[in-house]
């Protein structure tokens, strides 16, 4: 998942050109100093003209410029929550950032009788670094030594992104995504008023990581500032931030690793059934897919699942002593506890 207002800072301030070169210490991308060939793409020319005209741009703005399957089990999760919510006839399946809509299409095939609303939301991040002068945003400028090359620099003054830093923040590098907060707040408000549930699945962490901004080209890591427009840019979701943005309006579960979530959803049982019905080539394909989804070194521990639910959905999970014996116990939330197969 990715989300954020086009936010940037516009022209940063009158002293915007008095920037401080910054070596962002992320292991996934470089500062642009390495002697690598930089393909002068049309996007790079556009960015250079933009920076010359308005000054350094935020990483969020850079991403927005550059970036313009366990589906059946996810379908089962949504059906489970739909049933727990009372099987309301009015149902919407909303996927944020659907790309070509393949995942949602696969889920809809699980319950083809239900309609869907797909919304395309791009999510970008702001990089903020702790300095002796306080928190400063990392922005992107033209390298004065190489006219067709970009570099990371520190903003010379305070920018709006810094207000999203927690006062007790212990990390010295933070990636913030205000748009993700806005979307989670809107989802939380809608769920609190009308019911429903949200399931968020993505690369992510629980407020422990610092530098996750990276690029991929041809399934390989790629310098995020080299040949912009030719690589996919991404960053991990900070689920601790999403939890804060829910602001107590709804309950949250997770994040939990994909391996655990899918195991709780019964992927092993499903695999066994499918293997029994498949020929040898299909079995090999199923086993390879299972390994990709569940192997901790692949997607098993890289993807996380996080859910937003009405408070009353979890209210009776503790089974208080004075609960009415005639009142049915609240069923566990699928994926976040082991399913009881009957």
> What is the residue-averaged pLDDT?
81
How is the main sheet built? Answer: 6 strands, antiparallel
Rg (C-alpha, Å): 23 Å
Query: Roughly how much helix do the residues carry, as a percent range?
Result: 25-40%
What is the distance, rounded to the nearest whole angstrom, between the alpha carbons of the first and last residues? 34 Å
Number of strands: 13
Keywords: Acetylation, Methyltransferase, Mitochondrion, Transferase
Family: Belongs to the NDUFAF7 family.
Protein name: Protein arginine methyltransferase NDUFAF7
Main location: mitochondrion
Task: Report on the architecture of this protein.
This protein has 342 residues and is α+β, with helices and mostly antiparallel strands. It is built from eleven helices and 13 strands. Among the domains are: 126-175, no CATH class; 177-313, no CATH class. 32% of the residues lie in helices and 18% in strands. The protein has helices at 42-54, 59-66, 71-84, 102-110, 178-194, 239-245, 258-264, 267-276, 280-294, 296-300, 311-315, and strands at residues 20-21, 57-58, 126-131, 134-142, 150-154, 173-176, 198-205, 214-217, 220-222, 232-234, 237-238, 251-257, 303-309. β8 and β9 (220-222) form a beta hairpin. The strands form three sheets. Strands 1, 2, 3, 4, 5 and 6 form a six-stranded antiparallel beta sheet that branches. The chain has a four-stranded mixed beta sheet with strand order 11-7-13-12. The chain is globular, with a radius of gyration of 23 Å. Arginine methyltransferase involved in the assembly or stability of mitochondrial NADH:ubiquinone oxidoreductase complex (complex I). Belongs to the NDUFAF7 family. It is found in: Mitochondrion. GO terms for molecular function: protein-arginine omega-N symmetric methyltransferase activity. This is Protein arginine methyltransferase NDUFAF7.
């Amino acid at each position: 998942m990715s989300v954020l207002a086009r936010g940037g800072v516009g022209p940063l301030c009158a002293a915007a050109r008095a920037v401080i070169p910054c070596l962002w210490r992320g292991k996934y991308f470089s500062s642009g100093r390495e002697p690598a060939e930089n393909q002068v793409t049309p996007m790079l020319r556009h960015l250079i003209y933009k920076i010359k005209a308005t000054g350094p741009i935020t990483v969020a703005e850079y991403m927005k410029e550059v970036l313009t399957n366990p589906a059946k089990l996810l379908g089962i999760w949504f059906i489970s929550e739909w049933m727990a919510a009372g099987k309301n006839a009015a149902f919407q399946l909303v996927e944020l950032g659907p790309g070509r809509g393949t995942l949602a299409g696969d889920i809809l095939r699980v319950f083809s009788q239900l309609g869907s609303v797909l919304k395309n939301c791009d999510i970008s991040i702001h990089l903020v670094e702790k300095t002796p002068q306080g928190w400063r945003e990392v922005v992107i400028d033209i390298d004065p030594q190489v006219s067709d090359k970009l570099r990371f620099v520190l903003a010379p003054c305070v920018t709006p992104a810094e207000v999203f830093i927690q006062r007790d923040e212990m990390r010295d590098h933070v990636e913030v995504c205000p748009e993700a907060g806005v979307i989670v707040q809107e989802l939380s408000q809608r769920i609190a008023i009308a019911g429903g549930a949200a399931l968020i699945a993505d690369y992510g962490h629980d407020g422990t990581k610092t530098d996750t901004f990276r690029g991929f080209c041809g399934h390989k890591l790629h310098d995020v500032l080299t040949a912009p427009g030719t690589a996919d840019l991404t960053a991990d979701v900070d689920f601790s931030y999403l939890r804060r943005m829910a602001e107590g309006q709804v309950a949250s579960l997770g994040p939990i690793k994909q391996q655990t979530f899918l195991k709780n959803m019964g992927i092993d049982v499903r695999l066994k059934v499918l293997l029994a019905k498949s020929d040898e080539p299909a079995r090999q394909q199923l086993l390879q897919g299972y390994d990709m989804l569940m192997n901790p070194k692949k997607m098993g521990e890289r993807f996380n699942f996080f859910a937003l639910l009405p408070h009353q959905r979890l209210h009776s999970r503790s089974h208080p002593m004075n609960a009415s014996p005639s009142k049915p116990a609240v069923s566990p939330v699928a994926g976040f506890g082991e399913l009881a197969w009957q």
